[in-house]
Inverse folding.
């Protein structure tokens, strides 16, 4: 083998290593988890934690909020959810106000979910057939909660959007009622009476009150 052949071989190996490293680094960005698989995994993991964690079973609100913050909240598009809840008033808010609104609305939803989880017993989640066309950037993942001992199942549908960080939920429709638009009338009244800053103050005060009732 000549020096030239050896140099070319070393260069080829180096290029191959760079390509391999780039493939490993790029994989998380390109191989996104499918929206239905994401909802199923998160639901399954969250319910398993709820069933096995004695603090959660005892109704420890702080521990429940930690579960929601770490497991569920990162997979929601809070800016879009807040914009939907605000309706036309969203456009009148400054970027700083929009961020504060999103932070307070996130805290409110976490408290709401915390309250719901303190009442969880042995319900199970069923996942309905999912259909998605190639190139879709928005889908709905349909599920239903089945109560122990019978009773009418409660449908829960997740409106999902594809983002650079993976699929995220921007609304949850429970029993036909949109989680985010359900707040729209209340938020609109607050804005009419006290402006955007008044709504932010109201949400902040409510969030300091502990677990939502």
């Amino acid at each position: 083998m000549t020096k030239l052949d050896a140099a070319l071989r070393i260069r080829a190996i180096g290029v191959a290593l760079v390509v391999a490293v780039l493939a490993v680094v790029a994989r998380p960005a390109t191989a996104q988890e499918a929206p239905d698989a994401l909802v199923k995994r998160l639901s399954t993991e969250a319910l398993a934690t709820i069933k096995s964690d004695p603090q959660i079973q005892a109704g420890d609100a702080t521990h429940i909020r930690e579960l929601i913050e770490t497991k569920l909240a990162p997979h929601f598009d809070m800016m879009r959810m807040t914009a939907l809840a605000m309706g036309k008033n969203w456009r009148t808010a400054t970027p700083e106000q929009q961020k504060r609104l999103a932070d307070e609305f996130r805290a409110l939803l976490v408290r709401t979910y915390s309250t719901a989880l303190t009442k969880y017993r042995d319900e199970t989640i069923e996942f309905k057939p999912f259909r998605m066309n190639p190139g879709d950037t928005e889908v709905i993942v349909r599920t239903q909660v089945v109560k122990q001992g019978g009773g009418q199942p409660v449908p829960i549908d997740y409106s999902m959007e594809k983002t650079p960080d993976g699929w995220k939920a921007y609304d949850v429709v429970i029993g036909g009622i949109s989680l985010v638009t359900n707040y729209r009338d209340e938020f609109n009244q607050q804005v009419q009476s006290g402006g955007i800053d008044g709504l932010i103050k109201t949400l902040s005060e409510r969030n300091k009150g502990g677990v939502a009732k």
Observations:
- The longest strand covers residues 154-163.
- Helices lie at 3-30, 35-52, 54-57, 61-72, 78-86, 95-118, 184-207.
- The beta strands are 124-127, 138-146, 154-163, 166-174, 177-178.
